[in-house]
Write a structure and sequence with these properties.
- It is built from 15 helices and 12 strands.
- The protein has about 450 residues and is α/β, with parallel strands linked by helices.
- The chain folds into 3 domains: about 40 residues, no CATH class; about 220 residues, 3-Layer(aba) Sandwich (Aspartate Aminotransferase, domain 2); about 120 residues, Aspartate Aminotransferase, domain 1.
- Strands 1-9-8-7-6-2-3 form a 7-stranded mixed β-sheet, with helices on both faces.
- The longest helix is centred in the last third of the chain and has 42 residues.
- The termini are far apart.
Length: about 450
Amino acid sequence: MVDLGNLIDIYKHSKVPENIINRGKLVLKDFLRPIKILLEQKCIPNEPWDDEQISFFLKILSQMDTDKDRKVARVGEREARIMSKIQLDISGGFCHGIGRSGFLTAPQPKAPGSSIMYEITNYLALDSMRKFGTPNIKAAIIVPMATGMSLTLVLSALKPKLGNGISLNKNKILIPQLDHNSILKSIQFLDLIPKIIEGKIFGDAVRINIEDIKKALDENCFGIISFTSFFPPRESDDIKEISKFAEEKNLVHIIINAYGVQSPFWMKLIRSAIDAGRVDAIIQSTDKNFLTPVGGSLIASPEVKNIEKISRAYPGRASASPIVNFLVSILSLGHQGFLELIKEQKENYRFLKVELERFAKEINERVLDVFNPIAVAITLRNIDKNKLFDLGGALYNLRVTGPRVFNPNQDQFGTCTKEVYHSPYIVINAAIGSKKEEINEAVVRFKKAYYQIKNKK
């Protein structure tokens, strides 16, 4: 690589004047300085990078992989051969992927650039968890799987191994009820048995009592999964008390923090849980928190050894694309950019809640009294229950995506309780990345759809 400090010497016989070369050198140094700082400090840049800097950085690293070597004789069965430049672009240039022989963070002899890229990305994942609310995290990794399969990977890595005095019957997981199919599938994928602790209704909110969790423990349980972020009326678990319980009973404790990085409140819960007891791993989605395409998760832990186990549990190599997506997002945002998004999210949430409260009063409904810093739910008691399904369809036809309509006459799934929930409702989110204009338009169209369906003969 050209040493910028020697540009004057390299061009000393050029007809280009020295002062002009110095001027160009200054611009080039400013362009490259963020890359130098990232490689030296391995932390999230304070200011966002522009697309040209990110592309240049990815290009440099990907050019180090052997599939870019023009003199190489590639005769192996896995040589990162591709059919189209489109595939090269989609992967960020890292066609060899990441990991080696089922060890995600192992360096690849054929892919030094990919190996460096992945190492830097994991440093940024760790830095993001620390800066955005959990400074007591010790290790983190980006994995090329969404939240559900990431839970399967974590359980596979952290479940007790036979030998070490562990019984064959240690095959149950305690789960505070969360009506989401991917959680149950993640557990059943490993032939483990979910032991669900039912939610109970407290006013409008659905919560899982810590005493009920304690009573559900039996000798065949080895772990517990707790949850921060979900949709109203389900509130977050008391993960601080759960972590104390996990430590007392020597249970593996995994926190699903699916879209919780954007919430300082939920991140504070996790921080206090780590300080109070046992937390083995925290799983969060990259698309829900860091505005990437679907397909990646950030897994963090207060124990370095746990991330090592998780990395070693992954079978085979893995796609680099979800890792590159996270890297691109975090460099595009920078520390200040992410903080701005969090600030915007808070403002949008307040705006959404005020608008829905105003409309609720207009139609003799009310906003559910459920604590959730992302989503707001409003009752739908005064609309014919047979028309509730049509309301969701009307919103879809009005090009509003995201709201969830619940009809207690059809199915309780979604409320996270076996008890009959007292009212139909609709949930609307003000998640990170949403714009105030979008939320306002969604509310306007919700009003239109409501009256359209209510007045329908």
